[in-house]
Design brief:
There is one protein chain. The chain has 2 domains: 2-25 and 106-183, Topoisomerase I, Chain A, domain 4 (Orthogonal Bundle), CATH 1.10.132.20; 36-101, Gyrase A, domain 2 (2-Layer Sandwich), CATH 3.30.1360.40. The mean pLDDT is 89. The chain has helices spanning 2-25, 75-84, 107-144, 150-183; strands at residues 41-44, 47-50, 55-61, 64-69, 91-93, 98-101. The strands form 2 sheets. Strands 3-4-6-5 form a 4-stranded antiparallel β-sheet, with helices on one face. It has a two-stranded antiparallel sheet with strand order 1-2. The chain is an alpha+beta fold. The protein is elongated, with a radius of gyration of 22 Å. It holds the Pfam family RRF. Belongs to the RRF family. Its main location: cytoplasm.
């Protein structure tokens, strides 16, 4: 009973970490990365479609992204979506491919990005703690319904706390890595 609960907690907490990594990948650093735009929703024939399904994205130079649509007719739509996004990038369209030049980040912009990273880290920590809270409640219910003993409850609470601490530590590592990337000149 306790093992299943801890397993469920681990699965849900890893989901929160994965979500964090995905959201941090969209924050730009000093160098170009396809992750910056690959999940950008493009209105393709009325359906929002991630850019990575409509085009190949490459990095020909450290500060340049090249987007080559599979369907040439979607070029304008992709260009409009990039302009409308919060990336703050101006696409250069030559009729076949779109080039995105990433200007060097200013010190002020780096600080703003670090603040965004910190807020996303806090969201992740909160969701990890929410998983812990939900499953602690489940364990206490099991004990209340005499499905597990009081000792089992204590053991389960300790295991859940150890898991929570481990996941929060991983969150911090991910955050420090991203912060270092952003502040790297």
């Amino acid at each position: 009973m306790i093992k299943e609960t801890v397993k469920e907690a681990e699965t849900r907490m890893k989901g929160a970490l994965q979500n964090l990594e995905d959201s941090l990948a969209t924050i730009r650093t000093g160098r170009a990365s396809p992750a910056l735009v690959e999940k950008l929703p493009i209105d393709y024939y009325g359906a929002p479609t991630p850019l990575m399904q409509l085009a190949s994205i490459s990095v020909p130079e450290p500060r340049t992204l090249m987007i080559r649509p599979f369907d040439a007719s979607s070029l304008k739509t992709i260009e409009r979506a990039i302009i409308a996004s919060d990336l703050g990038l101006t696409p250069n369209n030559d009729g076949r491919v779109i080039r995105l030049n990433l200007p060097p980040l200013t010190e002020e912009r780096r600080r703003d990005l670090v603040k965004i990273v910190h807020s996303r880290l806090e969201e992740c920590r909160v969701s990890i703690r929410n998983v812990r809270r939900d499953l602690l409640k489940d364990l206490r219910e099991f004990e209340h319904e005499k499905m597990i003993s009081e000792d089992d409850l204590k053991r389960g609470e300790e295991e859940l706390q150890k898991l929570t601490d481990k996941m929060i530590a991983q969150t911090e590592e991910i955050g420090e890595r991203k912060e270092k990337e952003i502040l790297e000149v």
